[in-house]
Write a structure and sequence with these properties.
- The chain is built from 12 helices and 14 strands.
- With 372 residues, it is an alpha/beta fold.
- It folds into 2 domains: 4-244, Aspartate Aminotransferase, domain 2 (3-Layer(aba) Sandwich); 247-371, Aspartate Aminotransferase, domain 1 (Alpha-Beta Complex), CATH 3.90.1150.10.
- The strands form 4 sheets. The chain has a 7-stranded mixed β-sheet with strand order 1-9-8-5-4-2-3, with helices on both faces.
- It is globular, with a radius of gyration of 21 Å.
- The chain starts with a helix and ends with a helix.
- The structure holds pyridoxal-5'-phosphate (PLP).
- Pyridoxal-5'-phosphate (PLP) binds at residues 55-57, 81-82, 84-85, 127, 153, 155-156, 182, 184, 194, 196.
- The site of pyridoxal-5'-phosphate has 15 residues, from helix 4 and helix 5.
Length: 372
């Protein structure tokens, strides 16, 4: 699915140098690379404030923590996402309220969000799934109209942009009160270990988030808030600075791979290629096809595996079917779009180093499968 060894080989001298610099400085926590990386990432994302932290799940936890919500406040989020989106809310004693997704983009359905609002709603968490923005126009309007904070879980769509009706363009993560992201190695901007960050345009919130991520302290040994120990290691920041320079090229490479898949697979009867929202760019964290006959999905995956083609199922279960979240009391059938998709989706390799030959081979094997 990925060729991280290949990607890192091309960057080897710069990565070595970054590691050596941190070793030499011995400033392993909050060293200069952390601030430098935050500034560079902020510049890349249109000048937002970036608050690095330990991982993308902590970023979500910190975002919710900074809203200072009463216990039991309801957090609206999509039923089709990685479990971390839910976990952060649940761990804070907030109540995850799931809503269904759109069948075309797989992103949270704004109409379902609106229907789920109550006086107890504390925040809406939108996920920009697989690399494409959720309907930020509708979500921002709902957030403003109802005075409810919008948080963007942007672990999968770093660098994606969304164009509003008035022509305004914004980066994913920079539209709501807070954006969160992850530098887990397999993400589009992956570190060599865990890492994450928050994004905000509000300088006061940036200060609060920075304190919350560092034991709630305003200065050393002065603790204003109950916070977390959630800092990005200097070493990861130094390595991520190198990888950030490669991000625009890698994103373009992913998009080129996706365009070739689109052209080749659109004529294959039996699958639906990823829907594009014309207002959003797509950075293709995943290239996820949908089978018209879900009963054939696992057979296709096994067939491709036997041909040496790796694939993944994101996600095999909707979050409400996970045992840990049974206490929320949802029933099978409540989020029918998410449930159907879990049985019908398959993600194909879409990494920046995928060659045209490899891709042609993958496409031919998919064609073979549907011809038989
Ligand atoms: C990866 C991911 C996270 C969590 O990030 P970690 O850095 O692994 O904690 C959260 N939300 C989504 C949608 C993700 O894909």
């Amino acid at each position: 699915m990925l060729d991280l060894v290949g990607e890192h080989a091309a960057l080897q001298p710069a990565l070595d140098e970054a590691v050596q610099e941190v070793l030499d400085s011995a400033a392993f926590i909050q060293g200069p690379a952390v601030g430098q990386f935050a500034t560079e990432l902020g510049d890349y994302l249109g000048g937002a404030h970036i608050i690095p932290c330990a991982n993308g799940t902590d970023a979500l936890t910190l975002a919710l923590l900074s809203l200072n919500l009463p216990a039991g406040a309801e957090i609206i989020l999509p039923a089709f996402t990685y479990v971390a989106t839910l976990e952060a809310a649940a761990l804070l004693g907030l109540k995850p309220v799931l809503v269904d997704i759109r069948p075309d983009t797989f992103n949270i359905d704004p109409a379902a969000v609106e229907a789920a609002l109550t006086p107890r709603t504390g925040a809406i968490v939108a996920v920009h799934l697989f690399g494409q923005c959720a309907d930020l126009a509708a979500l921002r309007a709902i957030s403003i109209r109802h005075g409810v904070a919008l948080i963007e879980d942007n672990a999968q769509a770093i660098g994606a942009t969304f164009q509003f009706e008035n022509g305004e363009t914004a980066y994913a993560g920079a539209v709501g009160e807070i954006g969160t992201t992850s530098f887990f190695p397999s993400k589009n901007l992956g570190g060599l270990g865990d890492g994450g960050a928050l994004l905000t345009r509000d300088p006061a919130r940036a200060i609060l988030l920075r304190q919350l991520a560092n034991h709630g302290q305003s200065q050393k040994y002065h603790h204003q808030h109950i916070g977390l120990n959630s800092r990005l290691d200097t070493l990861q920041a130094a390595l991520l600075r190198v990888k950030l320079r490669q991000l625009p090229t890698n994103t373009a490479a992913r998009q080129a791979v996706a365009a070739r898949y689109d052209a080749a697979l659109t004529t294959v009867a039996g699958i639906t290629i990823p829907a594009r929202d014309s207002r959003s760019s797509h950075v293709f964290h995943q290239y996820t096809i949908r089978l018209e006959e879900p009963s054939r999905r696992d057979t296709l995956q096994h067939f491709l595996k036997s041909c040496g083609v790796p694939t993944m199922i994101y996600y095999p279960l909707p979050v409400h079917a996970q045992p840990a979240y049974a206490y929320l009391g949802y029933r099978a059938g409540q989020f029918s779009v998410a449930e159907r998709l879990c049985g019908a989706v398959l993600s194909l390799p879409v990494h920046p180093l995928l060659t045209e030959e490899q891709q042609d081979y993958i496409v031919e094997r998919v064609e073979d499968f549907f011809d038989n």
